[in-house]
Amino acid sequence: MRGNFTVNGKKCQFEFQADERLLISLRNNGYTEVKNGCMEGECGACLILLDGKPVNSCQVFTASAVGKDIKTVKGIGSLHQPHVIQEAFVEAGAVQCGFCTPGMVLATYSLLQNNPNPTEAEIKSALDGNLCRCTGYVKIIEAVKLAAERLQVNGGYHE
Ligand code: FES
Ligand code: FES
């Protein structure tokens, strides 16, 4: 099968199997920043924004995403032009092996878009589906708080 998508603002076309999951299609087409942790919807490593909503891409059939807008972590910032959230993760020491980071950053992006000043409980709830084997989560929560503060000072998202 073939289908058109918009990934990080660029129009593209993927070829894919009828039963293929979006995580696999993205990785097959070079979007390897979307991580494959479990393929079972349990770890959040494959989280993307699909039409602006956070979803685990391993649980989405590619065929069902045709025509939709996809954002991966590279769509919000890059190594040389990091997003405020990415800077906050680095500064807070919330990145160790980095495997969970793309999903964590996008889950944070979605949270702060909808709730710019979350409580600690709201942060924990928003990141509930994202597992990290390295950090113990404390620094990740600090990073989200730091990002929220900075975004409020800056008046919101810059991309
Ligand atoms: S790889 Fe999708 S939730 Fe783990
Ligand atoms: S930094 Fe290693 S899994 Fe989170």
Overall description:
The chain has 159 residues and is of the alpha+beta class. 33% of the residues lie in helices and 14% in strands. The N and C termini lie far apart (33 Å). 40% of the residues are buried. One FE2/S2 (inorganic) cluster binds at residues 95-100, 132-135.
Largest sheet: 5 strands, mixed
The stretches of 5 or more residues where confidence is low (pLDDT under 50) are none
Strand content of the residues, in percent?
A: 5-15%
The number of distinct β-strands equals 5
Could you tell me the mean pLDDT?
Answer: 96
Q: Write the element-wise H/E pattern from the N-terminal end onward.
A: EEHEEEHHHH
The coarse silhouette is: globular
Bound molecules: FE2/S2 (inorganic) cluster
Looking across the biggest beta sheet, what order are the strands in?
Answer: 2-1-5-3-4
Percentage of residues in helical conformation: 25-40%
Structural class: alpha+beta
In brief, what are we looking at here?
The chain is of the alpha+beta class and 159 residues long.
Characteristics of this structure?
159 residues, alpha+beta, five-stranded mixed beta sheet, 5 strands, globular, binds FE2/S2 (inorganic) cluster
Indicate the topology.
Blueprint: E1 2-7, E2 10-15, H1 22-28, E3 47-50, E4 53-56, E5 69-71, H2 84-91, H3 101-114, H4 120-126, H5 138-154
Parallel strand pairs: 1-5
Antiparallel strand pairs: 1-2, 3-4, 3-5
The structure holds FE2/S2 (inorganic) cluster (2 copies).
